[in-house]
Design goal:
The protein is mainly α and about 80 residues long. About 75% of the residues lie in helices and about 0% in strands. It has helices at about 5-10, 10-20, 25-30, 35-45, 50-65, 65-80.
Length: about 80
């Protein structure tokens, strides 16, 4: 999944992340700032997860929030020079 899309809709994604991982503080979410690797790292720290488990949880979250990514991908296509299909 292309996480540049998450950066463009960070407020929405941030809210969904906070619902999923209630241990993440606002400071944690500020530090993540739309980066997948940042989320994995914070989950390892706050949830005390193995790298594999943190990555799995993020992958599961991505799957459940596909609508967020798909909608944004459509919206940014004109800016990337990609024609709507």
């Amino acid at each position: 999944m292309t996480w540049v899309i998450v950066e463009s809709i960070w407020i929405e994604a941030r809210g969904r992340m906070k619902e999923q991982w209630t241990t993440l503080s606002d400071d944690d979410l500020d530090a993540i700032n739309g980066r997948r690797d940042g989320l994995v790292t914070k989950l390892r720290e706050t949830e005390r997860l193995t790298p594999e488990e943190a990555d799995r949880q993020v992958s599961d979250w991505e799957s459940r929030n596909h609508d967020l990514f798909a909608e944004t991908a459509e919206q940014i296509k004109p800016y990337l020079g990609i024609a709507k299909q």
